[in-house]
Amino acid sequence: MFNFEIVAGGTVRDVLGDHRREVLDLVRRTYRLHETGETVNPDSYFLRFPEKPDARIIALPAFLGPEAGVAGIKWIASFPENTQSGTPRASAVLVLNDYATGYPVACLEAATISSARTAASAAVAATALRPEGHRGRTIAVVGAGVIARAICDYLHAADCVPDSWLVHDLHEPSGRALVEHLRATRQAPVSFTAHLTEALAADTVVFATTALKPYVTTPFAPGQLVLHVSLRDLAPEVVLGAQNILDDVDHCLKADTSPHLAEQVSGGRDFVTGTLAGVLDGAVTPDAGRPVIFSPFGLGVLDLALGAFVLEQARRAGTAVEIPDFFGETRRW
Question: Is-above-0.85 flag for pTM?
Answer without folding.
Answer: yes
